[in-house]
Design brief:
The complex is a heterodimer of chains A (479) and B (517). Chain A has one domain. Chain A is built from 20 helices and two strands. Chain A has a two-stranded antiparallel sheet. In chain A, strand 1 and strand 2 form a beta hairpin. Chain B has 517 residues and is mainly alpha-helical. Helix content of chain B is 74%, strand content 3%. Chain B has a two-stranded antiparallel ribbon. In chain B, helix 13 packs antiparallel against helix 14. The chains are: A mainly alpha (479), B mainly alpha (517). Chains A and B meet through helix 17, helix 18 and helix 20 of A and strand 1, helix 5, helix 6 and helix 7 of B.
Chain lengths: 479, 517
Amino acid sequence: MSASDFYALSPLLLLAGSSVLIMLLIAVRLSHRIIQISSLLLFAISLYSTVFTADILPYRIPPLLIFDGFSSFITALIIFSSLVVNILSYVYFDEKEESPKEYYVLLFLCTLGSCVLAISNHFVSLFLGLEILTVGLYALIAYLRGRNHSIEAGVKYLVLAAFSSAFLLFGMALIYLETGTMNFSEIGERLRTVDNIPVIFITGLGMMLVGVGFKLAIFPFHMWTADIYQGSPAPVTAFIATASKGGMFAVLFRFFASIQGFNFPEIITILSVVAIASMLVGNLLALRQNNVKRILAYSSIAHFGYLFVAFIPRNAISLEAISFYLLSYFITTLTAFGIVTLLSVRETDAEDIGRYKALFWQHPILACVLTASMLSLAGIPLTAGFIGKFYVLAAGLQGGFWLLAIILVLSSVIGLYYYLRIITIMFSKEEHAEIIEKKAHPGFYVASSAALVILTFVILLLGIYPDAVIKLLGGFSMS
Amino acid sequence: MILVWLILILMGGGLLAFMLGQWNKSLPRWIALFTLFAGFLGLLSLWIEQYRFTNTWLVNYKTEWIPSFGITFHLAIDGLSLILLTLTFFIGILSILSSWSDIRDRVGFYHFNLLWILAGISGVFMAMDLFLFYFFWEVMLIPMYFLIGIWGSENRVYAAYKFFIFTQASGLLMLLAILGLYFIHGNNTGTFTYNYFELLGTVIPEGTANWLIAGFLIAFIVKLPLIPFHSWLPDAHSEAPTAGSLILAALLLKTGAYGIMRFALPLFPQAAINFAPWLMLLGVLGIIYGAILAYAQTDLKRLVAYTSVSHMGFVVVGIFAFSELALQGVVMQLITHAISTGALFVIAGILKERLHTRDISAMGGFWQQMPKLGVLSMVFTMASLGLPGLGNFIAELLILLGAFRSNLWITIFATAGLVFSAIYSLRIMQKVFFGPKAGSAPISDLNWRELSILTSLTIVIIWLGVYPQPVIHTAKPMVKYIENIFSGDASAVKNNKLLYQMKTAEQPNKKETYVSK
């Protein structure tokens, strides 16, 4: 490996090194507070490193890894999400666990796994990244051992993730059988020499889609989502909803672009069906939920369906649309789960929708933050979600996918209902019982709230003046 | 710049009211009132200043917003926009006054919502970029949702949902149509833009144009509302607080009619002609159906809400007659309906404040106790039934005259609608102010505030009935332009873009002229 390889890899190396460093800090029995703050700093450093390594893009480390504008954007986004999760975690875990320090090690490892996914250009690195991410997540999901739901969710995730990994591996093997290579670009080249897509290849692709679809929680692999969102600790749910999905989506997009999947009507049909079903199923299932985490789980299914509307055409603005949508969705989701985290108490998470009753009149700032994020998820103007949805629609329509665009519009109207429901409850008049104030860590509480307020401003800024970000995204290329 | 200021003061005033509302309960009211007065005076002076000129476009402001997509922050007003903007601020002032005493909790947030609705509506009347237009179109929804959902009466949550989902769903279909138009224009010419003036005269295959105009029309006729999309309206109107009903009836419904005239017709003239007979039919059905349902209501606010459906039917019939006379009538109808129906909602609000009910059967014989309210109510019910001398008469007469030439049978049935409107209007007076006295509790007559609201509305409705010329004069260029598109003169359709650019170039106000590429 050359020096420039190390330079390009520095965000990942920093993340890997951080996890070891934190482990050492735990070994010398430092307090939770110090570990939290130092891991925050380490996240910030790795985030910064994604920015300063941007000057060598695009860069390849053959055959496994690839660095280009898109991958480093996704890497930065993943690390940023983990950073926010990290900020939110202190208050949440400190009152629940005796010693929540190992949590931070796992967080670093999961982030690393997700970043590896984002830059991988090969089946081996894909699988490696996936396993680093998934193994860490088993532990994170079941981290609060005292809660029944947590254990249940952890075991459920373990069984299903192992199952889906098996499918993924089998699918890869079939594709390898057909093409004789595991490198994305080489697979693409082999595929260009054939007229009709081979049956074994399409079978392999289908099996891979099982594995990938499971991670992204798209229809029909979405069954786990609600239970695991509900059972995980709130900050971990935020991580699952954002960082863990971002990497997978990026690698899927890269693979799809490499094999030029948009040239094959079979693939387009499969993905369109998946997208349409995800949009409808996600939004319909969310309608009857009374648990905020479950609502957000189902809404995430729908949102990844929306993303596929930009994904399938794979035209000039697809890449920008996907990047923008991921950015806005991540920030919005982090904000929403941030509020859930802040309102959680020692015994339970703030997941029952009744918990939010009249929140506006007790915690106007938190309620405004949650309102902004709900409106953004619903795609109402003035918020990032609107520009994101607009972008996705534009990408879909430019490719002539009217059916997908119309389904997107109709299903997002269904989605409005449950987002509005949360808002309505927050603004309802009935007075709620006393709210237990978090007096234990006022400093961290304020810091978490401040982080959420800043994120809210970003949501609004992206909604009102998105041009700067659009210009940045427009400069991306995928090599 | 005045256009940007209009929006900025509304939004800024709203934020200020929200923040100061934490400390002082009456400050937000004064802030809101002051803001609206300032805007109203500004618009009046602009109107008087521009009255001499006969330009199409009066003021223009354009700056880049999201250049990557070809989206500009482009505001411009012509006579029609100016009239509707003035109306917006006028009704805004009255809505603040009408809720002066009955809103006691969360005053700051209430006025924030009120001002932001008005900002959204003003934006809709000014935006000349389709993306910006959609943006403002949606901006007014959320605060309205809060206004109904928080300060409404018993069934408010249901009404707020219904309002929001109806309008949002139809709005999103319009967004699809906007995007479709954007790509068609971009593929034809190579410039991807949302600019209204550049999109005018885009060559669209007829089948596609029918779909695109359908996307626009669905958003507009849901707002208007035209049957069968009217079912949100009675709920939203009757559950909203007085100011909310006033704004809904007087302003929100007008954005639909404005959208049809400004966007749907000029952008897709041929498709509009294809749709015209069906929409006129729906319009006339709306006139009769709304009137019959209004007669059957026992809830005073629902009654007035159904009269809106009936009156807006006239608007649709007038627009799709495509004649200058009818279009002038439509512009008049937009204003007079805002005034008369708005006043009826204010009256319903006043009665509700005193009686704590909207049920007509619990009312009766109030003339003795409230002579002032009785007299003023008489004026507005008479206006609503189209009594000569009051504004609505002019409006409906012009619409019927204009529509007569384009579709005889539709006009005949629409005229029959006037008879129905006489029936329901007289029923309001009969049930509320005459007949046997209901209850013996003393009811106070109007106070100075309510009196001033209703008096100013009365003055306007009489003025419009006696001397409507200022409105007609101001709206003329726009109306003339629409008629030219549809007069069968092919060159008018082809040259409409040029016409706009030439007219705007002649403007006296050089600084803010629209510069054509």
